[in-house]
Amino acid sequence: MMSDPFFQPVSGFDLPRYAGVPTFMRLPHIPLEDERLGQVDVGLIGVPWDSGTTNRPGPRHGPRQLRDMSTMMRAENGATGIRPFEAMNCADLGDVPPNPADIQESMTRITAFYNRVLAAGIRPLTAGGDHLTSLPVLRALAAKEPLGMVHFDSHTDLFHSYFGGTMYTHGTPFRRAVEEGLLDPKRVVQIGIRGTTYDREDRDFAESVGIRVIPIEEFHARGVADVMAEAREIVGTEPTYVSYDIDFIDPAFAPGTGTPEIGGPNSFQALQVVRALKGCKIVGADLVEVSPPFDASGGTAYLGATILFELLCVMVG
Questions:
Q1: Distance of CA 113 to the CA centre of its chain
Q2: Residue 250 sits in a domain of what CATH number?
Q3: What whole-number distance in Å separates Cα of residue 91 and Cα of residue 88?
């Protein structure tokens, strides 16, 4: 299918990239009330919210900086040849307005927003926000059936609670998602896990329910192609969500995040793992934990915007 010309991004040949109002990848902004909403195939959405952060705050500012850096994305993926904006109608659907003082209300707002997106037949590509963002998104996407998930991260985000009983932080979203029946744990793979730990509670939970955890040591020993072949086998051909925490990448390449961990993949490997998702039935994806206050050069957000483009390419390819 060829997309509607209206949904083509503004070209850098027509307007310099530093000019104009920034939207994701210079796509048209289509609010949920817009009459063209029903024509959108893939919607890029910002969730400027980090109330689940337990270390360094700042990802609430991520979507704005990711939009700015994404103006560098062009029409064609130079590695795969995919031209996503011609393959499907893509648009910037704006931001979910959170309540920064209320975690539960914010999650309710996020789920409600995504319910409207799904009702319009749109697949969402999300820019967070901290990783708790994924839980209310999954509550919308997995309302009818549990999903598989490919999760790139340095942390499992499978902890039961923080600080003696706080159940909703960016370290707990996928524990809650399994408990709520949003994820099929036997179709979940977590890649890149590393760093010092308090205990093995999260790993023990993963093992008890059948989640496959691939630590960074195994990732480096086996290589991208082998690891991603296993990931594709685990999720199979059924509906799958992709969640990409920017701290999956080594902080030498992505320092602008709240909980960095040494020893991760480089920026090229960060793109390769996404390209290796080709063939998966991706019903939604997110890129989270970009924190502009710790990203003085803007390089982390630029890498994050490039990952969003790669995710878009595998969603439409």
A1: 17
A2: 3.40.800.10
A3: 10
Cα–Cα distance, 152 to 270 (Å, whole number):
9
Residues 6 or more apart from 98 whose CB is under 8 A from it? Answer: 47, 48, 49, 51, 60, 106, 109, 110
Which domain covers residue 181, as residue numbers?
A: 5-316
Percentage, residues of the chain above pLDDT 70: 99
* Cα–Cα distance for residue pair 242/245, rounded to 1 Å: 10
- Listed in sequence order, the residues at least 6 apart from 28 whose beta carbon sits closer than 8 Å to its beta carbon are 6, 7, 91, 92
DSSP E strand boundaries for 7-89: 42-47
Domains identified in the chain, total number: 1
284-306 pLDDT tens trace: 999 999 999 999 999 999 999 99
User: Tens digit of pLDDT for each residue in 5-29?
Assistant: 999 999 999 999 999 999 999 999 9
Query: What distances in angstroms separate CA 137 from CA 213, 234, 260, one per listed residue?
Result: 22, 22, 24
